[in-house]
Amino acid sequence: MRIEIERVAKRFGPVNANDDVSLTIQAGAVHGLLGENGAGKSTLLRILGGLLRPDAGRLRFDGRPVALDSPADALAAGVGVLHQEPLDFPPLTVLESFLVARPRAARAGGGARALLPGRGRAAGVFLPRRAAREELLALAARFGFSVDPDEQVARLTLGERQQLELLRLLSLGARALLLDEPTTGISGAQQEALFSALRRLKQDGKAIVLVSHKLSDVEALCDRVTVLRQGKVAGEAEMPAGAARLVALMFGKALALPERLPTAGDGVALALEDVGFGDHRLDLRLARLAVRRGEVIGLAGLEGSGQRLLLRACAGLLRVRRGRVAIGGADLTGRPYPAFLRAGAGYLPADRRREGLIAGLSIEEHVALRAPRPGVFLRPREIRRAAERAIEALRIHGRPETPVEALSGGNQQRAQLALLPGDLALLLLEQPTRGLDIASARWVWEQLLARCRAGTALLFASSELDELMRYSDRILVFSGGRVSPPVSVADLTLDRLGRMIGGELDEPAPAPAEPAAPARSDP
Amino acid sequence: MSPEPADRPGSSAPRSPGVRRAWAAWPGEVASRLAPLALALAFVAGLCALLGASPAAVAAALWDGAFGSADQAARVLATLAPLLLCGSGLLFTFRAGLYHLGVEGQLVLGALCATGAARALWPGLPAGLVVALCVAAGALGGVLWGALTGALHTRGRVSEIFAGLGMNFVAQGVVLYLVFGPWKRPGVASMAGTEPLDSALWLSTLGGTELSPAALLLAALALVGTAVVLGRTHFGLRLRAVGLSPEAARVLGVPAAREMLAAFAISGALAGVAGALQVLGTFHRLLPNVSSHLGFLALLVVMLAGRRAALVAPIALFFSALNVGSLKLPMTLGLESSLSGVLQGVLVLLALLSPWKARVGRGGGRPEEA
Asked: Which of B9, B234, B255 sits opposite A376 (nearest CB)?
């Protein structure tokens, strides 16, 4: 199936997630969709999958204009989306999961191969278990997947769930497959199986869209690549195009790195010893990290690889599973968050609107919340003066009574910075310049480096390699459920960093854990 | 997502959305309050017509029932006191983003503790002291109940709605046990409740009516105090922060769980005082129906008030008048007295569903304007 995307646009508030995007995906080809976080890949994928309606523009499948109101519509039109986190039902068995949503899809037609043809309505009421089992096993055999129909989905690895979902979409008649970061969190063998299945589907004439961060995936599979940047098509390339060209398209022209005066001083600001941290999916270990006062440590990796967990563990918002955390020499292991705050840890989350600031409160109310020694009553005049000082100092575009949700992204970041106490020992940031234009980003970094010169150690997670290379002294790379030891930026190149993020961590790799860590989906 | 338009300082004129929004919102604000009222009245008028009664006659009967005599007007004001107390408590929990349905149980437990204190302390201590201690015991009982509910929510991760409802049942169960068990009247155990308190412990009322000025004064003070605490103190601001975004509040250093517990405890104290006053001022005994569902009615009042302290008083008065006024409907027009409940319920539902509603979202509150 040929998919034509014509001048599609989608806005979320002030953000142009997709801006006049046009591209054509040919049948019988794998089309790569590249771009950094927030470039608009996921939005485009959701539009194609019927999860979002575009504000402007249209879609044509095989030349016919289509309007997709729901994922079911998209599937009926032949488009199946394989989400990063498969949309399946962990409590069900593989067979049941395969059968879910089938009757309606089958009734809707859309090229679905109906199970039990000719049995009339009864087929819509009772589950055609036996026929489905046969179909599932036949499909699995065709692609060399090993599937146990009676296994519970919850017990499958991510890679197996992905295979199941792929088979389900195919059995429902998908003629185009959209895959969102399919190789994140699956084992090497599963990746091989997936790739050979995709090559086979390509030969069958299916259109395949591969959304990925990983250049190696794209180079291995794609016939053509479209790079998105800031919601727009930054360029297209026939493969093989060479990694250098793709990197340049993705990240823009590599800016010359300005000389950064070292800010690292003496004394340890943060010491981690043999810490283990994680959530329900990840279990990460970091042998040793000693961050000096004024030092800048970058955390690289696909989003959701554990950078946020490390930052929250250092901030005291996540309890480490083992090991020791010390800030400024004080052992804080297992202490509550307020103890970390008192020790001088500051944390700025990436989701400024939801986690960093409180939508509904004004700038001055935030200032009052952060007041170091609040009395009982609010003192409106003092608070207003403090808010005015902060607004002035950080050049925030707003007034004391402006609600924070009315501020632009850059000004929200300024407001977050303004709310931090002045003498932090350790500043932890997620995506400090996400959503900011270049000038704002540079300004934010000036503020951050000024703090470093005053002795604050800084840990920041970023998905922009350029930012990591430019501002870090050392970098930790998160990939595939592991963390690299800190690498000095002097020993890194953009290319090597990219390869490390793609999984080539330098330490001898232990056998990949199964299931390994799936990354969190794009925001 | 993708970068936003340039927001360099000095690149455009400063915005002042706050000021303009307040003015622009004014007519809409009024409409948002009045439209549901009009619709609910129309609905109930239609219902009356369907039942064969003239809406005008019903309205007249309601008015007459509520304000026809000094006695009845006093009763309206007497019902107002527990409504205001429970409503004040609910303003705290709503401000913290909690749908706290346990207020009913807190009221019941307050009544229970007040009765217990009276039984234990009288006649060993002077009457005035016993009354004060009864009120304090009621508050303490409410605090206990509220804190338990809060702990279920913050520690046990039970939805505060179910925690509150569950605790209501427990409180009701304990009262039934006491009324029919250890505290039953000698010889007869009945829904009519325990043996009446000694009349020395009754709150003095205004000229033989049911209105106890002390209770009403206490309730009014509670509402004013609530408005001040929520609008003017750091604690009130922290509660708002927790209600708007617990996660962000936590990152900013607000101990969200502690503030929620405090909100539960305060609402418990106020509802518990209401329960104590019901015993000391109105019923003079503990009876299974001691709450008269005033806790739930207060919930409706606060929802309709959009969580604003200033609106709680008039709406509570209106609801109280409806409750008292409707008692005469069966006699005068042969209609069920539950008609007032229908009107109250429809009103709140329509206010919550209103497309013009200001901001009734979970925890979405404006600064206190009282």
From this structure: B234
